[in-house]
Amino acid sequence: MCTISMHVSILSKPLNSFHSSKRRSSKSWPVSCILPTARLRASCSSQREEAHQLRRSGNYQPSLWDFNYIQSLNTPYKVVDGSDLYLTSLGFRLLRQHGYNVSQEVFDCFKNEKGSDFMASVGRDTKGMLQLYEASFLLREGEDTLELARQFATENLQKTLDESGDEIDKNLSLWIQHSLEIPLHWRTPNLEAKWMIDAYSRRPDFNPTILELAKLNFNIVQATQIEELKDISRWWNNSCLSEKLPFVRDRLVESYFWAIGVFETRYERKTAAKIITLITSLDDVYDIYGTLDELELFTLTLQRWDTEAINRHPYYLQLFYLVIHNFVFELAHDILKEEGVINLPYLQKPWVDLVEAYLQEAKWYYSGYTPSMEEYLNNSIISIGAPTVLAQVFLTSKDKLYKYNHIIRLSGMLVRLPDDLGTLAFEMKRGDVAKSIQCYMKERNVSMEEAEEHVRFLIREAWKEMNTAGGCPVRDDFVEAAANFGRAAQFMYLDGDGNHSKLHQRIASLLFQPCD
Question: Fewer C-beta within 10 Å: the chain N or C terminus?
């Protein structure tokens, strides 16, 4: 017989035993447990009688949103659950580039059962592949999954371009080409602004208000840059170096373009542009014009900052010494006024390090000596000039210089190696000192193609070290500027030696042509 008394078996104590000193809420127990005993013994027949009694009704309508509707809901804004490659990669990249320690394990769900590679099916998600590719360049030392991701994404994106033809969206195709050329993490936004605006305007879903604001911001920034460039141009014109020494390069605008890519504040950009302009011209003195005897004597004079010794130099070196001397002392004066400290020795030392590195290269050239790869890199990461600029703009004490020594060397490496790749053909034709590619070819007895690939490997390794060194939640301005030097170098030497028509077009577009 079906009766409610089937529940009684669970009650091993009298019902009143539940009402002990430890009071319990009635919601904690089934309703049947607190019913009188007589009710528990009621039969099914009494239930049927109760069912026929008249009862009130609220006349409620069925739910507007039934089970099937709720289960069918989907939204692109749901919390990432690891199954969306695009969102996982984008989130990883944004967090990493702001210094947060996101684990590479977020990509494990996209790998095969053995974990040896990414699943082939993932490669068909082109937008996801593009984001995975961009994310992979934020890898740090020991992160094999991200290295695997870079190789996998690169192969699949290149395959997409080669095989898809007109089938792929044109705007997406342009983004893939742009990224394969240089990944986002190796680009500086300041130099990419015009390209980004043009790319956004080609999107069918662009927001006209956002586009208009982006153009307005670009034009305002450009106006500020033009005023800065005018000021620097007056300083350069007053130095008379380009007028009196026609054998040196007049690269003021290009130098300011470098500074835009590296530094954020007006003071930093203007100071850096002046230093880069002087370095470019001084490089021509040591690389091309000066004799070894002249260069050795000039280096000695600068090591001692011996103004009285300039009478022993030819006119062009007298002029150069005084321009550098006056610049350094004016910079020291400005810092003394603003910060109340004398840091002249720390402003002089980077120039001494630079000319000593220049002199070493001159000695190698005149003796016909090809250094080992290690010898070359130890010297050339100084002679490239990035450490000189960073030290002059940022560092005011020996303690800071020591603290950032590894970052300075990495920055020099990230500028030197792209420079070598971009300028090799021009400098071989001119008969310059051996660069990294030639040093590696001779040392390992390999082809030029193998040497170039090794240099590209060294660039990736240097970026990996820079990512590791700079991986903290609070970004350090110095570390960011050091990395930006590497980013600017990728841009400047992309199509050649840093002085060609494509680069000039980009400079003109950024500095002299406002957005319509």
Answer: C
Q: Which of 493, 488, 487 is nearest to 418 (CA)?
A: 493
Tokens at 480, concatenated: 């960011």
Q: Phi and psi (nearest 5°) for 111?
A: -95, 165
Handedness of CA 173, 177, 180, 184 (dihedral sign): negative
Under 8 Å CB-to-CB from 402, ≥6 apart: which residues? none
For residue 352 the two structure tokens come to 């001494």
Environment class of 85 (CB within 10 Å of its CB; exposed 0-12, middle 13-18, buried 19+): buried
Residues 6+ apart with CB under 8 A from 316: 244, 245, 285, 289
CA angle 394, 256, 343 (to 5 degrees): 25
Length of the chain: 516
Q: Where are the beta strands (DSSP E) in 156-257?
A: none
Multiple choice CATH, 85-186, 1.20.1250.20, 3.40.50.700, 1.50.10.130, 1.10.1240.10? 1.50.10.130
468-487-414-399 Cα dihedral, nearest 10 degrees: -60
Over 80: is that where the pLDDT of 26 sits?
A: no
- Residue 441 structure tokens: 């070819």
In the chain, which segments carry CATH 1.10.600.10?
210-511
Give 111's strand partners.
118
- 3-state SS of 30-48 is CHHHHCCHHHHCCCHHHHH
CATH of 210-511, one of 1.10.600.10, 1.10.1040.10, 1.10.510.10, 3.40.50.620: 1.10.600.10
Q: What are phi and psi of 30, to 5 degrees?
A: -60, 145
How many CA atoms within 13 Å lie on the side-chain side of 90? 9
**CB-CB neighbours of 307 under 10 Å:** 11
Residue 459: closest CA among 500, 496, 419, 423:
419
Virtual torsion, Cα 422, 426, 429, 433, nearest 10 deg:
-60
